[in-house]
């Protein structure tokens, strides 16, 4: 399962975002380090279900009238403070928790109502742009520190006649969550001495910075956007490649109201409908959230998750079935499973995602939408429905 991590300074709204996206019970407080141990839960990304191409909706529990929700892991890491890479505020522990994340959402208090330490201040008195560079720098320095601490071992290995520097670096760096492909791409891009003894601190920092950008991409979530000035939001957009305005509090209120049957709302919808009895105070609160949604096309929580997985990680959703005519499994369930795979993945990759035995016994595949056999080199597209033919089926 893909892993999306929430990072940022204390009191920026990470735990509220996490609770809104998972409806899990976590501590939320207006003080630093509300979260100590990382919270792990299941959230979902949203896409169009292939059942929209059929006369009837599939009825899967993760499909709401053609809105398909595909599970991902969501990780809420405790707030980071300046000097985290040196262990300040238990920073190393918190940074280590990010090592296996595929993408990171940097949750920023766009209102400027918390300082660098995560302490409440007068809204607008702190520049949230500082929090964009801060997380990137702390992660770069954390990764560089790991390389530094392991460099003596690399130098010792270099005395062996069969020593290969790329192999040694790959072994070290895959241990902190980077893939072999990421390491290989970094080593092709970054200039470095072939002799480990000639490496400088800057060589190691350059290596760490490039690898972090590849293996731990960061998206900025401009949280508390409903209380932020337009100037703050514009400056955040200038400071980061991708910025998603959001109100985690608003999303949490909507999901709780929907769970209670008070409103009709699916995560990621641009609006909601009141279906139950609400007090004047509740109605006023819901209308405030609606105003924000009209401005941003939603609360931003679902958009941030979707942007992370489908845009930054460039994944597609594929649906394996056993019956290519009915799009069902062996129990007649329509489109029972959805898998997230990197763009460029093949039917055999999907077979292995279903089960290693299915992959080992892979024979061929059928595109169920077009009712035709597809080749082994076929690249899966978003929403493909595929029958895998395997000796293990």
Topology:
Blueprint: E1 3-7, H1 14-22, E2 39-48, E3 63-64, E4 67-76, H2 91-96, E5 103-109, H3 130-157, H4 165-173, H5 180-189, H6 201-215, E6 218-223, H7 230-239, E7 243-245, H8 248-259, E8 263-264, E9 273-274, H9 280-296, H10 301-312, E10 315-321, E11 339-342, H11 347-354, H12 356-360, E12 362-367, E13 372-374, E14 384-390
Tell me the distance between the termini: 22 Å
Structural class: alpha/beta
N-to-C series of helices and strands: EHEEEHEHHHHEHEHEEHHEEHHEEE
Percentage of residues assigned to helices: 25-40%
Can you give the mean pLDDT? 90
Beta-strand residue percentage: 15-25%
> Residue ranges: pLDDT <50 for 5 or more in a row?
27-35, 88-92
Largest sheet: 7 strands, mixed
The total of helices stands at: 12
Report the count of strand segments: 14
* Inertia-based shape: flat
**Rg over C-alpha atoms, rounded to the nearest angstrom:** 23 Å
Structure, described:
This protein has helices at 14-22, 91-96, 130-157, 165-173, 180-189, 201-215, 230-239, 248-259, 280-296, 301-312, 347-354, 356-360, and strands at 3-7, 39-48, 63-64, 67-76, 103-109, 218-223, 243-245, 263-264, 273-274, 315-321, 339-342, 362-367, 372-374, 384-390. The protein is of the alpha/beta class and 393 residues long. Strands 1, 2, 3, 4, 5, 6 and 7 form a 7-stranded mixed β-sheet that branches. The longest helix is centred in the middle third of the chain and has 28 residues, at 130-157. The protein is flat. It starts with a strand and ends with a strand.
Précis, in short:
Helix content is 36%, strand content 19%. With 393 residues, the chain is an alpha/beta fold.
